Amino acid sequence: MSAGYGAPTPGASAVSKNIAVLAGDGIGPEVMAAAVKVVRKVGELYGHRFNFEDYKVGGAAWAAAEAAGDTPTHLPASTLEGCEKSDAILFGSVGGPVDQQHEPRWKDCEKNALLGLRKRFKLAVNLRPSKVYPFLSHLCPLKPSIIGTGVDMVIIRELVGGIYFGEHKRDGDKAFDVMEYTVEGIRKPMVFAFEAARLRRKKVTVVDKANVLECSRLWREVAREVHKGYPDVELDFMYIDNACMQVIQKPSFFDVVATGNMFGDILSDAASVLPGSLGLMPSASLGDGLHMYEPSGGSAPDIAGKGVANPIAQILSGAMMLRYSFQLEKEAAAVEAACEEVLKSGRLTGDLLEESQRSNAVSTSAIGDAVVVALKGP
Ligand SMILES: NC(=O)C1=CN([C@@H]2O[C@H](COP(=O)(O)OP(=O)(O)OC[C@H]3O[C@@H](n4cnc5c(N)ncnc54)[C@H](O)[C@@H]3O)[C@@H](O)[C@H]2O)C=CC1
Ligand SMILES: CC(C)CC(=O)C(=O)O
Ligand SMILES: [Mg+2]
């Protein structure tokens, strides 16, 4: 795995790739349909063959098994086998309404499905870029004087350790969730962060809670040790509570953020207000060989099934797949440019519009079609 963040790679000759498509729940299938259209089209334009294979995951897998009279599961063996024989996984989102977590279909859905995939494929490094598009700066709720200073950061989140993967236990009136990190588990995202910083503005900010947590002290030790190999990169540290404030108050401070699983989860949602919506935030979850690409947001049950979700995060996750899994930099850049063209043209989903303007909102599938049309070939 190499950082390659923003690194130009030479145009590749025609490739043939198998993509496992795990649309999942809520808005997943809607935004996924748009992303598949776009990736298929860029493949056609550049002469590649992308074979898409759909697999069930999450509540959708559970419901399908129930309907077939099989034992329900959130992550069927057939889905894992499909992923294993693919070159990349394009993932939508999983989970039900936040007040229905107790229902059998949704209970432990994210843990079983999403965390299951991350663990199974050792997807240790999660990249979550967040920037303000100059032509969309009016969507950012911050004052022009704050965003005018330039906002472009990438959060590197450790993805297979920490409190989400520690022991979870309920014992009568007590509950435990254990946070555990090893030097090796921290080094991987840390090295990636320094490599990424070298290709950017050469600054790594480690976000932690080292005033309280032993795990965070270990993160700092590893950061200082890794830093020795990157003297050209600046390193600083910030507590997570302050980081949540600074990402809003002084976002231009950040270049590359390196942080643990839970802090990265929280901070990346906070950072989603910068571009204007979670619906613009893609992500790449990198493993040792197979990588998975997923929007930073969830299944958004509040807007699911209405055709109003923003597909850009899913489409840009597809662009990250082209770049990191297939080394197709020009094709990735073509998808990003097409998304920018559509956004610039003012064709926007409701999440990017003021309440009073929502009647002008463009549907999920129409945005996908518009990105397809905006795609330029070689
Ligand atoms: N990667 C995944 O599969 C994730 C799954 N979840 C699950 O999603 C479900 C809902 O969780 P929430 O806390 O509500 O978070 P969420 O990220 O699904 O939604 C938060 C807010 O952002 C909006 N939003 C998210 N994506 C959007 C898009 N593409 N276009 C327009 N608006 C968008 C939603 O409408 C909602 O108002 C839960 O079951 C949760 O566990 C949450 C986060 C990640
Ligand atoms: C199950 C959660 C950890 C998923 C999530 O919120 C995320 O990855 O952003
Ligand atoms: Mg999250």
From TrEMBL:
Binds 1 Mg(2+) or Mn(2+) ion per subunit. It comes from the Eukaryota. Transmembrane segments: none annotated. Keywords: Amino-acid biosynthesis, Branched-chain amino acid biosynthesis, Leucine biosynthesis, Magnesium, Manganese, Metal-binding, NAD, Oxidoreductase. GO terms for cellular component: cytosol. Pathway: Amino-acid biosynthesis; L-leucine biosynthesis; L-leucine from 3-methyl-2-oxobutanoate: step 3/4. Its cofactor is Mn(2+); Mg(2+). Pfam families: Iso_dh. GO terms for biological process: L-leucine biosynthetic process. It catalyses: (2R,3S)-3-isopropylmalate + NAD(+) = 4-methyl-2-oxopentanoate + CO2 + NADH. GO terms for molecular function: 3-isopropylmalate dehydrogenase activity; magnesium ion binding; NAD binding. Residues 18-371 form the Isopropylmalate dehydrogenase-like domain. It is an enzyme of class 1 (oxidoreductase). The keyword Ubl conjugation does not apply. InterPro entries: IsoCit/isopropylmalate_DH_CS, IsoPropMal-DH-like_dom, Isopropylmalate_DH. Its EC number is 1.1.1.85. Belongs to the isocitrate and isopropylmalate dehydrogenases family. Catalyzes the oxidation of 3-carboxy-2-hydroxy-4-methylpentanoate (3-isopropylmalate) to 3-carboxy-4-methyl-2-oxopentanoate. The product decarboxylates to 4-methyl-2 oxopentanoate. Homodimer. This is 3-isopropylmalate dehydrogenase. The gene is leuB.
